[in-house]
Specification:
By secondary structure, the chain is mainly β. Helix content is 9%, strand content 46%. The protein has a single domain, classed as Sandwich (Jelly Rolls).
Length: 161
């Protein structure tokens, strides 16, 4: 038991030492993502002179029935401007093997959102994300998207090599 605790502590410590990571946050879901649920994150004030890469993080279980996912992402700037993107990401190989990382039935996918971003306006930026998954041939989207347990984002400092 003691070895398990030390191993867990080592994993936490190693992940905390990511010097590029500036901010990250996860939002827990009840095992599905409702079509009407828009997940919002307030981004803290960042250095306006630095460049950043932004990522979405999705944690899914084997209950997720698709090999891709569609997201609607919006970034609201402090002075009111809103930029909205429709994004598609692959979640699994053609044979069903998950692309995310993790042990067991829970996988985490780190998905590129934006690169070389500057947060030049003073104030709070708000990042919003919802899913836009629909079955082939159907007009209406999936009401409750099963197998998505958490949605989040992270921002990393761009390397200046």
């Amino acid at each position: 038991m003691r070895n398990v605790i030390w191993m867990f502590a080592l994993v936490i410590l190693a992940s905390a030492c990511d010097s590029k990571m500036v901010v990250s946050e996860m939002h827990e879901l009840p095992g599905y993502w409702d079509k009407t649920e828009i997940v919002e994150f307030d981004i803290p004030q960042l250095d306006s002179l630095s460049k950043y890469n932004m990522f979405f993080h999705l944690r899914n279980t084997n209950d997720y029935p698709y090999n891709n996912i569609f997201l609607i992402a919006s970034m609201k700037f402090p002075h009111g401007k809103i930029v909205t993107d429709t994004l598609e990401y692959r979640m699994a190989e053609a044979d069903g093997t998950w692309l995310g990382t993790g042990i067991g039935s829970l996988k985490e996918s780190k998905l590129w959102y934006k690169e070389n971003v500057s947060f030049f306006e003073e104030g709070t930026y708000t990042l919003s994300v919802s899913h836009a998954v629909r079955n082939n041939g159907e007009v209406h989207g999936v009401t409750q998207l099963p197998g998505i347990s958490e949605v989040g984002y992270s921002i990393e400092l761009v390397n200046r090599d």
